[in-house]
Design a protein that fits this description.
There is one protein chain. By secondary structure, the chain is an alpha/beta fold. The protein folds into 2 domains: 246 residues, Type I PLP-dependent aspartate aminotransferase-like (Major domain) (Aspartate Aminotransferase, domain 2); 115 residues, Aspartate Aminotransferase, domain 1 (Alpha-Beta Complex), CATH 3.90.1150. It has 14 helices and 13 strands. A 7-stranded mixed beta sheet has the order 1-7-6-5-4-2-3, with helices on both faces.
Length: 442
């Protein structure tokens, strides 16, 4: 057991501290050169420099008090307004910025719980959501005491609406659909879910955290995108991350509502505190001003033309990668794979071993289960490395086809998890693994 790390007895120089910090990133994922397919959405060095300047300009400001920092209040109001327009909201549409997709989903769940209590008298609310929904929704249900009821997906990986309807009970307050669903990059049948929610008097949240700032521009570029937002009458809330395909600095997301009355259920206030009136729009107290400012900055810096330019690069690159993957013997794409987010698998190879072989060459691909697959989210950074990626993928797949062993990696862990029937044992293993991640080294 390592000893607790003490505070340094004396301060160190500016240059020394920064040098140590830069040295610590030597093993970090190489996102600048397009070697990662998740976590970082890199729009190029010029855009990065702009974001750094915009963020740093407001780094010390605190969005906790919009009265103290009128600039942040205006930035947030205008970001929300532009997003409501992008997602076909009416003049009544409203929302707030959050720190990321998880907080947006937490707020949507909290709002549904408060709405169910106030408007329906439901004391034990339930939510029906796809098995493919982001785990942050399950986390939100867990945190707020809402019962999560999962519905299966069909062969196309979209949620089965008939199965959703079968799971509705008198305690159901909220339905959820994804646009896009993270695992396979598909849009759930939001039109049908909206009609169902409207007919049953329920709320419908669309989790567009991943696809929200991709789908509208893909549609303008000629890709067929089904309706998924407030243009559908039954959609009552929507989340979208600006720091993903909106290319803002971390962490900037949005949770939007069809009207201000519904958003009111998200707010928290206390008026009898000795410290004065406390009112908070979302989960956070302190709200980093830099993230709010940089989100406003990037939306104005890029404008529609800039977003279309970036998303054309993304879509062209994604098409090239998908065509290349289809051409590699033994590999196949999952689902429709129309957008920049997709997954691929194999009926002949162990794709986890394929992922390990690619990681040994410097590529970071997320692993998925049910079915086993490797996951890609394409950004502009992948344009210059698409040919190299496909060459490496082809060579790694051919090596495994010949029976050559894969480098050691996560394949054994995923294989073990797939074989263990006891969920509690798996949870225990994950807990120990996470404990180990945050131990101080050496």
């Amino acid at each position: 057991m390592p000893h607790p790390l003490p505070l340094p007895p004396a301060g160190q120089s500016h240059d020394d501290v920064l040098a140590r910090m830069r040295a610590m990133r030597v093993a970090d994922a190489n996102w600048r050169e397009g070697r990662t397919f998740s976590l970082v959405y890199f729009g190029g060095e010029e855009l990065k420099r702009f974001l750094e300047a915009a963020y740093n300009e407001f780094m010390s400001e605190n969005g906790l008090s919009p009265l103290a920092f009128q600039s942040l209040r205006r930035f947030e109001a205008e970001v929300v307004s532009m997003a409501c327009t992008l997602f076909h909201g009416t003049a009544e549409a409203a929302g707030t910025m959050t720190s990321g997709g998880t907080e947006s989903l937490l707020m949507a769940m909290k709002t549904a719980r408060e709405w169910a209590r106030a408007e329906r008298g439901i004391t034990a609310p339930e939510v029906v959501l796809p098995i493919t929904c982001h785990p942050a929704l399950d986390k939100a249900a867990h945190y707020f005491g809402v019962k999560a009821v999962h519905a299966p997906v069909g062969p196309d990986f979209r949620v089965d609406v008939a199965e959703v309807e079968r799971r509705i009970t008198p305690n159901t307050a909220l339905l959820v659909g994804s646009a896009v669903a993270y695992p396979h990059g598909v849009v759930d049948p939001i039109r049908e879910l909206a009609a169902l929610a409207k007919a049953r008097g329920l709320l419908l949240h669309v989790d567009a955290c991943l696809g929200g700032f991709h789908l509208p521009f893909a549609r303008k570029l000629g890709v067929e995108v089904p309706p998924f937002d407030f243009e559908l009458d039954g959609v009552t809330s929507l989340s979208a991350d600006i720091h993903k395909y909106g290319f803002a600095a971390k962490g900037a997301s949005l949770v939007l509502y069809k009207d201000k009355a519904l958003r009111r259920h998200q707010f928290y206030s206390r008026t009898d505190w000795p410290g004065g009136i406390y009112a908070s729009p979302s989960a956070l107290g302190t709200r980093p001003g830099g993230a709010i400012a940089a989100a406003w900055g990037v939306m104005n810096y890029l404008g529609e033309a800039g977003y279309l330019r970036l998303h054309k690069t993304i879509l062209d690159t994604a098409d090239k990668l998908k065509a290349g993957i289809r051409a590699i013997p033994g590999l196949r794409l999952l689902g429709e794979a129309k957008y920049a987010i997709f997954a691929f698998t194999s009926d002949e190879l162990n794709v986890y071993e394929l992922g390990d072989a690619m990681e040994a060459r410097g590529w970071k691909l997320d692993r998925q289960m049910g079915p086993p697959a490797l996951h890609c989210m394409v950004t502009p950074a992948h344009e210059k490395v698409a040919d190299l990626f496909l060459r490496d993928l082809s060579e790694c797949a051919a090596s495994l086809q010949r029976g050559e062993p894969a480098p050691e990696g996560s394949a054994a862990m995923y294989g073990m998890i797939g074989q263990v029937a006891d969920p509690q044992m798996v949870q225990g293993f994950i807990g120990e693994f996470m404990d180990g991640l945050y131990e101080v080294e050496g």
